[in-house]
Amino acid sequence: MDAVIKNLQSAAVKQDNKRRPTQAEAEAAVRTLLLWAGDDPDREGLLDTPERVAKAYRELFSGYSQDPADVLGRTFEEIAGYEDIVLIQDIPFFSHCEHHMVPIIGKAHVAYLPDGEKVVGLSKIARVVDIYAHRLQTQEAMTAQIANAIQESLQPRGVAVMIEAEHMCMSMRGIRKSGSMTTTTTFTGTYKTDVNEQVRFMTLVRGR
């Protein structure tokens, strides 16, 4: 019986640790950071900063409350058997590095090969990019997440994703090399097995 009670207590603690903090708790955390940085949260210019930061974070990390599968759920079937490349280039995004919580600024290029039976609205692809961008990220993970979400929801013959981005954790701090770009790619299905399709994707993106 003691073991059962201990397990229940442990589960309750874990559940409590996952509880989303209240607005007041979030604002208190911002006040603590302001004090830690060496400023006075009670001075006039910072009085409303905790509230503003909490509100901004709710927007910047809104991707946690959105499901890409819902966005990709509505497709169009009147496509006359079209099954060649659909490419959306230069999708701008802003994300945040999960290691330092500073911005990642870049653009995504996303392509897929329809199955000949359905396609998705072009804006939905951009929305999927935004959903994953509005979470704490690494560029590598975000690239794979976008590709996998499209592959799982649409079941196309293949998906290709390229992301080019500047990481402020490299530009603003540490090594401080502003302007350096990081490029990542992920391929699924035909894009993964057919080098010619990879080359075609890269040529279209680079030849713009």
TrEMBL record:
E.C. numbers: 3.5.4.16
Keyword annotations of the record: GTP-binding, Hydrolase, Metal-binding, Nucleotide-binding, One-carbon metabolism, Zinc
Catalytic activity as recorded in UniProt: GTP + H2O = 7,8-dihydroneopterin 3'-triphosphate + formate + H(+)
Pathway: Cofactor biosynthesis; 7,8-dihydroneopterin triphosphate biosynthesis; 7,8-dihydroneopterin triphosphate from GTP: step 1/1
The name this protein goes by in its record: GTP cyclohydrolase 1
SUPFAM superfamilies in UniProt: Tetrahydrobiopterin biosynthesis enzymes-like
Gene3D superfamilies cross-referenced by the UniProt entry: 1.10.286.10, 3.30.1130.10
Pfam families assigned to the protein according to its UniProt record, in alphabetical order: GTP_cyclohydroI
GO biological process terms, semicolon-separated: one-carbon metabolic process; tetrahydrobiopterin biosynthetic process; tetrahydrofolate biosynthetic process
HAMAP family reported in the protein's UniProt record: FolE (MF_00223)
Molecular functions per Gene Ontology: GTP binding; GTP cyclohydrolase I activity; zinc ion binding
Binding partners and assembly: Homopolymer. Toroid-shaped homodecamer, composed of two pentamers of five dimers.
PROSITE patterns linked to this entry: GTP_CYCLOHYDROL_1_1 (PS00859), GTP_CYCLOHYDROL_1_2 (PS00860)
UniProt similarity note: Belongs to the GTP cyclohydrolase I family.
Domain of life: Bacteria
GO CC, one annotated term: cytoplasm
Ranges of residues in domain GTP cyclohydrolase I: 27-205
InterPro entries named among the record's database cross-references: GTP-CH-I_C/QueF, GTP-CH-I_N, GTP_CycHdrlase_I, GTP_CycHdrlase_I_CS, GTP_CycHdrlase_I_dom
Keyword flag Hydrolase: yes
Annotated positions binding Zn(2+): C97, H100, C169
